[in-house]
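Cont'd.
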Amino acid sequence: MSRPALTRDVRIIDTTLRDGSHAMAHQFTETQVRDTVRALDQAGVEVIEVSHGDGVGGSSFNYGFSRTDEMKLIAAAREEARNAKIAVLLVPGIGTNEDLKRAHDAGAEMVRVATHCTEADVSPQHFGMARDLGMETVGFLMMAHRTDPENLAKQARIMVDAGCQAPYVTDSAGALLMHEARARFEALIAEVGDEAWVGYHGHQNVSMGVANSVIAYEVGVRYIDGSLCALGAGSGNSPTEVLAAVFDRLGVNTGLNVSAMLDAAEDVVRPYLPRWPKMDRNAIVQGWAGVYSSFLLHAERAAERYKVPAHEILKRCGELGYVGGQEDMIIDVAIQLAAERERG
Amino acid sequence: MSNNGVREPVTAAIVGPGNIGTDLLIKLQRSSVIDVRYVVGVVESDGLQRARKLGVEASAEGVDWLLKQDQLPQLVFEATSAKAHIANAPRYQEAGIQAVDLTPAHLGPMVSPPVNGAAHLDSPNVSMITCGGQATIPMVYAVSRITPVPYAEIVASVASKGAGPGTRANIDEFTETTARAVEEVGGAQRGKAIIILNPVEPPMIMRDTVFCAIGPEADKDAITASVHEMVAEVQEYVPGYTLRAEPQFDDPQDGWDGNGRVGIFLEVKGNADYLPSYAGNLDIMTAAAARVGELMATTKAGIDKETVA
């Protein structure tokens, strides 16, 4: 499977309605989704991702139940978008090919298959299905700070051989500093050559999302993710409206109308933000200790339930090396911390 | 089968001499009711060598060889792949050999020893479900035998090194089969299963979390007691099966359809017979298969004795 032709210098993919689902505790309404898609589409965004934060099939006790059936949200997004493609996330082990087929039926045209950065060999089944369905494909190598550039490139190779058109350096913990991000971008680009594009998905936990996006473009990364108002896990993603402004200043054609993007952020998304994603102590600890960004709200809830500080829970999760999807371990850590406190 | 009142063990074969097959062989060699006579593979391998060292006749000529033996085994344990088991199962049945299936093929009824281990002892083929299923379904059942469970969800965390290429290439089979077993064997009205692979070093010991939706008025003390009782039953064949904490009860929240929730947090440390102790996911499979095999053997010996008496 070859990589698709680019129509602009870089392909900006907006994930307000997917990564943002974490920050919304998966409570998006159909109206919010319709309004956001309409604004993004009019501002020139090429791809809009919509699904539960943990991907299709993510609605659960462990990650939080969706307020609105995600298939309904995907269908609504498909209806609103005139030009933009609708993408969904699929995390093997959480979602299945049955979920992917339903998302495709609802109107999804791209799937982003996400695995931990060393476990790409759980993805070929799903890339195979995506190809059979005629969908565009992206591969997320999550928690990309947890392996070295050379090994990350080998994992990208597994995905590309399985039919992935764009493996990503996915900085789920918002932990990659600029030189670390650059080394990973370069390794992936060297590995996949012109067989696939390379992508970058950033989080703002230590404020690197936009800076890393600029480096990414400079070294040849051509898919870059953002969220309006940074709405996403942890302290959020690289804000799409900031990416639009920065790339405009750099003279890089993203196809985005900067004013329309600013309006979308300010007038459509800001009014429904439960809180503006920010670099507070908990989120910084995530970037500092390398903790999966989606753990944030779960840790805050466990902190309240078990009367232990959220930042201590998050730090312990980092020390124990928990990966994306292990939200249940947050409760376990909180219980253990509470017991340790009781013992003194 | 019996002379002078002493029961002879039931004969068995292990098909698939990989790590799982070797671990199972070591467990079954401790059994007084099962005698593993043959270990079979399709190529010469370390696993066959290991079997020979343990004093068992081993062949690289597959099921063809096995079925040509003068003395056929009464039981076969299959630890190959779903595809291989689907091909082999009818041949075992034709030869009158009962099959315990450790692959994800799921041709026969799904069995979790402390839940329904005694229910399918005369079935020609039983399925051992999945590792995550073996670790969690006893807990779902421990709750559902006390109070209705409209929904149960299990999360299995497995060390990357303990997940083989078969599991990885077919990860949907794991989630779908486990979810079905949470319903059919565990007793939940609706089930969901999640599996996470974690590469941390040193490898993490298998962890499992079971969330069950329960009515707001459910008897929490009875559920807790039932969970402890069931943990003790599983410990009979997996001594490293433990609760990380007491069951955790949460009051109904938005989006839970008016239900409360019980969360059960488990650690499954393997017995390290052949597999490393962190691979509790594999150990609980071989231990459960050995357990079911022993129950079958005991039944067989009893029936055969009556027949010849």
